[in-house]
Amino acid sequence: MTTGTYTKNGFYDYVYYEITGENNKEINIKLSEAVNGTYKIIIEDEVGNKTSKEIIVNKIDQELPVINSINVAGNKLTITATDNLSGIKEILYKIDDGEFIRYAGEVTLSPGAHKIKVKAIDNAGNMNDQNSSSSEINVNVEDEGKKNLEDATKAVEKAENSQNQDDVDKAREKVNKLPDGKEKDNLNDRLDEVQNKINEKKDQEQKSKEEKEAKDAVEKAENSQNQDDVDKAREKVNKLPDGKEKDDLNNRLDEVQDKINKKKDQEQKLKEEKEAKDAVEKAEKTKKDEDIKDAENKVSKLPDGKVKDDLTSRLDDLEKQIKAEKDAYIKAYNAVKKAKSTLDKEDYEYAKKALEELNTTIYKSEKAQLQRVLDALKPYIDRKENQNKQEERNQVRNIESLIRKAIATKDPKAIEEAQAAIDKLESSDIKIELQKRLDTTNKVSQIDLAIQARDAVEKLDRYINYADIMNNLNVVKDLYKDAEKAINRLDNNSQYKNRMDKAKSYMEVMETLAKYKENAEKNNILAGEKEMAELISKANQLDFTTKNKENIIKEILKFQKQLKDLGETIPSAEA
C-alpha cells in the first residue's frame, strides 16, 4: 500500500493498494488517519481495465468505548458498557488469573476474594482504557449457601418466637430454598413443631368458637322453643367432636324437641278435636249421610279419651235419633196408608197418633204431606163412622123389636132370635141392658145365671193356665166373650171382676202382639221401641206365673229382635 501526501483538510491525496495474482478478493482496508468525507475507489486489472466508485463516509469511530459499571450483588456479577458511535461489539471479563471470557449475561461468582478485569470493544475495534480504574474491581463474595442458611435459621427462630402463621410461611419458603441435607431437615422439623402448635392452637380456638356457637344456638332454641332454631342448633352441635360437651348439648336439644313435639302434638290434637266437634255439630244439624260419615271419620282418628267418647256418644245418639225418626216416619206412612185403605176410625186414630208422635227434622215435608192425606180422609172416616153408628142404632132398634115380640108371644124361637141378635153386639152398657130385659122376659133365675157365670169364668181361667194360648188366641177371645156375657147377666158380678181383668190383660197383650205382627207383615207398620217397651212391661205385670206368661214374654222379645233386624226402604210421602 502506498499513500500520498496528507493534506490540510484531513485527506490523503491518494491511497494506493496493489493486489496481484488473485481473483474475486475481498479486502479490508483500515484508514488509521482517515476522517469523514467522500472517498473514490479505483480498481484496475492487469490489462489496464479500470472501474471506480465514490462512497461517502460520515461515521468514522476513533473513540474508546466506556465501561459504565461492574456490579456485584451477592454472588452475581453484572457488567454494562456503552459506545456512542459504532456501538459495543462485545464485553470480555476475567476473574483473578483466568482467561478473558465473553460476557453473555449475569455471572455467578464463587465465594471469596476476587479481582475482576473487564474489556469493552466497539464495532470499530476500539477497546476501553485498560489502565482506567473502571476496568477492574476487587470484590469479596460471601458464601451464599451459608448466608441462606443463616437467613433461614433466623426466620425459623422468629417463627418459633412469634408462633405466627405468616412467619412460619416465610421461614418455610427460605428453608425450602436450601439444598437438601441435615440442616434443612432440622429446620423443617422445627417449623413442623411450630406449625403443629399453631394448628393445635387454631384447632382449639376453632373448637372453642364452634362450642360457643353451638351453646349460643342451643340457648337460643331453649328460649325460643322454635323448630327452626332447634334444627340450626342441632346442625352446629353435630359438627362438634364426640364427647361430654356434645352429649350434654344434644340432651338439652332433645328436651327442647320433646317440648316442641308435645306442643305440636297438643296443637294438632286440639285442631283435630275442633274439626271433629265441628263435623259432629254439622251432622247433628243437617243429619245428612255424607256429613255423618265425615264426622265419624274425623272422630275415629282421635286418640282414646273423654272427647272421643263424648263425640262418639253424640254420634250414636244421632244415629238413634235418625233411626227413630226413620222408623216413626215409616210407621206413620204405613198407618196413613192403612187408614186410607180401610177408612176405619180406629186405623185413622192410630195414624193420627203416629203422625203426632213423628217429631222430625228430616221428614218435615213428608210429614206435612201425610197430614194433608190424613186430613183429606177425615170426611170419609166420619161418614163411615156415622154409617156404623146408624147401623148400630138400627141393630138396637131391631133387638128391641125382637124383645118386644118375645115378651108378647113368649115364643122360644123369638127369644132365641133376640138372644142371637144381642150376642152380635159389641160389649157396651146398651148390650148389658138389652140382655137383662131379655132375661127378665125369659124369666131366667139369678141362681142359674150365677152358675153359668161361674162355669164360664172357671173355664176361661183353666184355659189361660193350662192350655196353649199362644197359638189359640181366638179360643181365648171366645171363652172371654162367653164369660163376659155370663157375668153381665148377673145383678151383681163384682166377685168375677178381678179374674176377668186378669184374663183380659192376657188377651190384650196377645192381641197387641198379634196386631203388631200383622201390621209389620201386611202393612209394613213397625212398632216403635216405646210401644214394644210398654208391651213387655204389660207382659211382665200379668198375673198367674204360668208357662203361658213365659211363652208370651219370649214371643214378644223374639218379635222385638226381628224388628231391629228389619231394613226398611223409606217410602214416598204420597200415601
TrEMBL record:
Main location: secreted
Keywords: Plasmid, Secreted, Signal
Domain of life where this protein originates: Bacteria
Tagged with keyword Isomerase: no
Region (Disordered): 156-309
Subcellular localization: Secreted
Entry-linked NCBIfam families: barrel_OmpL47
Protein name, UniProt field: Bacterial Ig-like domain-containing protein
Lineage of the species this protein comes from: Bacteria, Bacillati, Bacillota, Clostridia, Eubacteriales
